[in-house]
Amino acid sequence: MGLLSKKDTKLITDPLADNNPITIQVLGICSALAITAELKASIVMSISVLFVLGVGNVVVSLMRNIIPSKIRIIVQLVVVAALVIIVDQVLKAFAYELSKTLSVFVGLIITNCIIMGRFEAFALGNGPWRSFLDGIGNAAGYGAILIIVGFFRELLGSGTLLGFKVLGDPIEKTGLYAIGYENNGFMLLSPMALIVVGVIIWVQRTRNKALIEDH
Amino acid sequence: MSNKTDSNLYTVLFAILMVVIVGGLLAYTASALRPKIDNNERIEKQQNILYAMGINENEGSSANFVATTQAPELFTKNVAEQLVLESKGGKVVNTMTREEFMKANNGKEPYLIDIKKQKSNAKSGSSRLLPLFVGNSKEGKKVYVAPIYGKGLWDAIWGYVALDENMVVQGAYFDHKGETPGLGANIKQRFFMDDFEGEHLLAENGDFKGITIAKGNADPKNEDKTDNEIDAIAGATITGDGVTAMIKSDLKLYKPYFDSLKSQKTN
């Protein structure tokens, strides 16, 4: 990439794999469990976090030299809460349908520890452009895991993807269901999200032994 | 960080300034967008009521409202009457027409009555206003749409149920504020809402029984319409129980009105 230096590119690619916020830093687990029962919700959440983390990181980075260190956590919290509320209000006024889909995520975005984590760990010590890239990279890494988990949970739990019945109709007994396949209702419950995340962590660490911590 | 930003005075001033700026920004956004948001919410209520009456643009398995631009016109056309029943102690003590209600409430339309507020009024012992929308369904049948309100797992759930004179459900629309996507949030999906069509609210002897969202009711295709049961959504027990509760508590209050309809007929 000509646009980005090697160091900048790493800011985006690192969180996608070897420094993934969910599987390596184990942040943002609560929302990963709560909303991954269907793929659509996972995608919407990923885009929302991408926006909030990208813009929020820039705002915090611009303010990094004037934020009093004693109250920096509260300042970060105010930045993210204000951003989310303004976006929510604008959507309610101009894209009402979309805002209804998002309403449930607003609270989850504010409490997402990845956002506060990146503000604290990166934006407070780096310039706006690098902070923006870091925000996008981490949100993408978070989104990638969310979408993988959402894909498996919706496919195995409801037999659908984005609402389309890809495996046939479970009530009419068509497609796979005709030969006795059953949806696994357990996939829809939160514990299975944790297990799917666990499997991803397992696969990732098997492929890259450097990620295994010594104790 | 420099020492300058560590002083107490600076910290306090920064906090005050931040609160003023952010507070002002949020207050400005909220008040500037308020009229637009109110209008969106008003149209949504009209779309919800029309949806329950069967006037919608459903295609395949997704639930679609009539277009927002058409909603006000279709609403005036299809909702012939908006009644407001005043309920106290399980009895209907007064029935107001739309005109009477609007006269007493500065021109406020009955469909904008806040059901949540009415519910808490009833809890504190005063009377409760029950809006009832009378109109014709898509098939030309006379239906009575009643709004209901309750709580799910995380937050509020509400809905509109269209009934015929015998309190048999003709259509239903449910919505929620913050139920879990893929689980409780599925109460607003076609497969759940459509199950209510034709379901009886009354038991065979004519008493009010409501509709229970039942797990393992051995009728997943919902062929038995008089069992007062709907198949539950897997993984959404508490949201389902909330739907059961709001149907039982809210629609029961309308029973005296439907009884009076019947006695008028037989007389």
From TrEMBL, chain A:
<keyword id="KW-1133">Transmembrane helix</keyword>
<feature type="transmembrane region" description="Helical">
    <location>
        <begin position="43"/>
        <end position="62"/>
    </location>
</feature>
<dbReference type="GO" id="GO:0005886">
    <property type="term" value="C:plasma membrane"/>
</dbReference>
<keyword id="KW-0739">Sodium transport</keyword>
<keyword id="KW-1003">Cell membrane</keyword>
<keyword id="KW-0813">Transport</keyword>
<feature type="transmembrane region" description="Helical">
    <location>
        <begin position="131"/>
        <end position="152"/>
    </location>
</feature>
<dbReference type="InterPro" id="IPR011292">
    <property type="entry name" value="NqrD"/>
</dbReference>
<dbReference type="GO" id="GO:0006814">
    <property type="term" value="P:sodium ion transport"/>
</dbReference>
<dbReference type="Pfam" id="PF02508">
    <property type="entry name" value="Rnf-Nqr"/>
</dbReference>
<keyword id="KW-0520">NAD</keyword>
<keyword id="KW-0406">Ion transport</keyword>
<dbReference type="GO" id="GO:0016655">
    <property type="term" value="F:oxidoreductase activity, acting on NAD(P)H, quinone or similar compound as acceptor"/>
</dbReference>
<dbReference type="InterPro" id="IPR003667">
    <property type="entry name" value="NqrDE/RnfAE"/>
</dbReference>
<keyword id="KW-0830">Ubiquinone</keyword>
<feature type="transmembrane region" description="Helical">
    <location>
        <begin position="185"/>
        <end position="203"/>
    </location>
</feature>
<keyword id="KW-0472">Membrane</keyword>
<protein>
    <recommendedName>
        <fullName>Na(+)-translocating NADH-quinone reductase subunit D</fullName>
        <ecNumber>7.2.1.1</ecNumber>
    </recommendedName>
</protein>
<keyword id="KW-1278">Translocase</keyword>
<keyword id="KW-0915">Sodium</keyword>
<keyword id="KW-0812">Transmembrane</keyword>
<comment type="subunit">
    <text>Composed of six subunits; NqrA, NqrB, NqrC, NqrD, NqrE and NqrF.</text>
</comment>
From TrEMBL, chain B:
<dbReference type="GO" id="GO:0010181">
    <property type="term" value="F:FMN binding"/>
</dbReference>
<comment type="function">
    <text>NQR complex catalyzes the reduction of ubiquinone-1 to ubiquinol by two successive reactions, coupled with the transport of Na(+) ions from the cytoplasm to the periplasm. NqrA to NqrE are probably involved in the second step, the conversion of ubisemiquinone to ubiquinol.</text>
</comment>
<keyword id="KW-0739">Sodium transport</keyword>
<dbReference type="GO" id="GO:0006814">
    <property type="term" value="P:sodium ion transport"/>
</dbReference>
<keyword id="KW-0812">Transmembrane</keyword>
<keyword id="KW-0997">Cell inner membrane</keyword>
<comment type="similarity">
    <text>Belongs to the NqrC family.</text>
</comment>
<comment type="subunit">
    <text>Composed of six subunits; NqrA, NqrB, NqrC, NqrD, NqrE and NqrF.</text>
</comment>
<keyword id="KW-0830">Ubiquinone</keyword>
<dbReference type="GO" id="GO:0005886">
    <property type="term" value="C:plasma membrane"/>
</dbReference>
<feature type="domain" description="FMN-binding">
    <location>
        <begin position="152"/>
        <end position="254"/>
    </location>
</feature>
<keyword id="KW-0288">FMN</keyword>
<keyword id="KW-0472">Membrane</keyword>
<feature type="modified residue" description="FMN phosphoryl threonine">
    <location>
        <position position="237"/>
    </location>
</feature>
<keyword id="KW-0915">Sodium</keyword>
<keyword id="KW-0406">Ion transport</keyword>
<dbReference type="GO" id="GO:0016655">
    <property type="term" value="F:oxidoreductase activity, acting on NAD(P)H, quinone or similar compound as acceptor"/>
</dbReference>
<keyword id="KW-1278">Translocase</keyword>
<dbReference type="Pfam" id="PF04205">
    <property type="entry name" value="FMN_bind"/>
</dbReference>
<keyword id="KW-1133">Transmembrane helix</keyword>
<dbReference type="InterPro" id="IPR007329">
    <property type="entry name" value="FMN-bd"/>
</dbReference>
<dbReference type="InterPro" id="IPR010204">
    <property type="entry name" value="NqrC"/>
</dbReference>
